Each structure stands twice: as structure tokens, then as C-alpha cells.
């Protein structure tokens, strides 16, 4: 009897591991809330994409509701997202970009080709600010209220269908 139970043990372990692996694979990581929701935007001091001598810090995000978009030239979905960001800017949404793990030349070329809806682009070539924000794939977008608190996070690109919802989110915090 003990011997039969001992033979079933590896099968039970295998089935248990299979269940947890299957469950993990079916979870949508983009559906997770950011750990930074309701937290202060991380402190930083970085240059802007256009001017290596111009330094900006987190105070840039104070006094106005701001949509902060993390993007990169090498990101194909960032190219798909740009028309929606241009629409948001046209509708009066303040946008600040974070050019993530890119070069200045490539980032500027991207904006020249696809348009520049951003009031300012923060240059984050090493991804340090992105790391502080918990970015695990671009594009990602954060809504920051006038006190510098992160109120909303959108993982993935903003689709045309998302534009109205994003505008409504911005309106809730104005």
C-alpha cells in the first residue's frame, strides 16, 4: 500500500506543477495594476531629448495633469500609437514623453517621421527612469495629477478606441 502511494507521489507533484504553470500562462500581465498607483512619480534628473544641456526633474510634472508616455524608436507599436497621441495633444491633453533606451539621433528621427505630440521628451538612454516606473515593455502610459501622483497606468499602446477613455481619465483628475 505504501509502495503504491509512493509511486503516485511524482504524478501528483507533476499535476500540481502543471496546474500552476497553466494558470500562470493564462494570466494577462497587462491587467495588473501598477504598484505605483497613488504614489509620487519617482524622482529623477535627466536631460531632454532635444537638448543634452537642458535638465528636467520630477517638478516638470507638477501643477498640471500630465500624460507621461514611455516610448522608443525601436518599438513598432509606438509607431502605431503615435496618431492617437497626436489626437490626445490636439484635444488639449498635456503629454510628456520618456524616450526609453534609445539614442538621441534615433529618437529625433522617430519624432520627425511620426510627429511630436510631447511638450517635453525626457531622454532615458539607460532605462533608469523606466526601471523606477516598473516599465517592462514599451509603450506604457501614466497619468500624473497636478501634485505629481500617478493616478492611472495604461500598458501597451493606446488604440483609437482607447482615446476617449484616456480623455475621460484625464478629465477626472483636472
Please give a structural write-up.
The chain has 174 residues and is of the alpha/beta class. It has 5 helices and 7 strands; from the N terminus they run αβββαβαβαββα. The chain has a 5-stranded mixed sheet with strand order 5-4-3-6-7. Helix 2 links the parallel strand 3 and strand 4. The longest helix is centred in the first third of the chain and has 25 residues. The radius of gyration is 21 Å and the shape is elongated.
Q: Please tell me how large the radius of gyration is.
A: 21 Å
State the distance separating the first and last CA atoms. Answer: 70 Å
Structural class: alpha/beta
Strand order of the largest sheet: 5-4-3-6-7
Number of helices: 5
Tally of strands: 7
Major beta-sheet overview: 5 strands, mixed
Low-confidence stretches: 27-32
Please state roughly what percent of the residues sit in beta strands, choosing from under 5%, 5-15%, 15-25%, 25-35%, 35-45% or over 45%: 15-25%
Helix-strand sequence: HEEEHEHEHEEH
The overall pLDDT average reads 89
Please name the defining characteristics of this protein:
20% strand; two-stranded antiparallel ribbon; alpha/beta; cytochrome c-type biogenesis; 39% helix; disulfide bond; DsbE family thiol:disulfide interchange protein; 5-stranded mixed sheet; 174 residues; redox-active center
Short summary of the structure?
The protein has five helices and seven strands. The chain is an alpha/beta fold and 174 residues long. The termini are far apart.
